[in-house]
Amino acid sequence: MELTWHGHSTWYVTVGDTSLLIDPFFDNPHTAMEPSEIDQPDYVLLTHGHADHIAHAGEFTDATVVAPVEVAAYVEAEMGADDTIGMNIGGTVECGDAHVTMHRADHTSGIDMGYEYELGNPAGYLVSDEQPGPDGTGTSFYHAGDTGLMSEMKDVIAPYLQPDAVALPIGDHFTMGIWQAAIAADWLEAPHVFPMHYDTMPPLEADPEEFVDAVGEHAPDSEAHVLDDDGSFTLD
After folding, report:
1. pLDDT in tens, 173-195
2. Tens of pLDDT along 209-229?
């Protein structure tokens, strides 16, 4: 499984012959790429309806959009998505060689275009090369979405979904900050953790090396990786 971070919460994930782009938002300082320069993904996964997570969803018209049902309906009606899969919390859908499981995130979801769309529950995704199950086989990546620290990380996601790698927001203000994200890393028990959703705008200023130090203190069984802009990591 190949993981590439394009800044903010935007990740490009390859599972076998299947490619998935999560939360496409390329107007951020941690990517040098434009949407047109990205290899066309097979699937676009959207965690919630805020503009800094769905801004460029309409640029990938050949992809199937996977999103909470309300967000899927919105991008189909307003952003020209031709093929959508609406799903909800707890569900798993098969996306080519990947299995995508949606889990809740503690956040909000909505967009205002002169009139407001209520866009359902915000979410995170577990992307796995096998159907998630109690035996914990397979390789999986958990994109936590925009979230605060929540007990489900410890009580549900870690023991039952068993992620091998986790991307956590550290920018504070709208999501967890560094200290809470380090606690999340401890609760999730994943070998590999990555910071995201930071340094995109003034309220989100954060030093990812402080996150590395906090993970070392609070989650010593996890290794924190700070990816370079448009940097990749291979998850075996």
Report:
1. 999 999 999 999 999 999 999 99
2. 999 999 999 999 999 999 999
pTM for the complete prediction?
0.97
Q: Domain 2-234 - what CATH class?
A: alpha beta
Measured distance CA(142)–CA(62) in Å, rounded: 24
Decide if 131 contacts 161 (C-beta within 8 A): no
3-class state of residue 59 by DSSP: helix
Pairing of strands 98-104, 116-118: unpaired
Alpha-carbon span 82 to 84, nearest angstrom: 7
Mean pLDDT of the chain: 95
CA dist., res. 153 & res. 73, Å (int) = 28
Q: Is 194 helix (H, G, I), strand (E, B) or coil?
A: strand
Query: How far is it, in rounded angstroms, from Cα 192 to Cα 221?
Result: 9
Within 10 Å of residue 235's Cβ, how many Cβ atoms?
Answer: 16
Say whether 181 sits in a helix, a strand or coil.
helix
Domain borders along the chain are 2-234
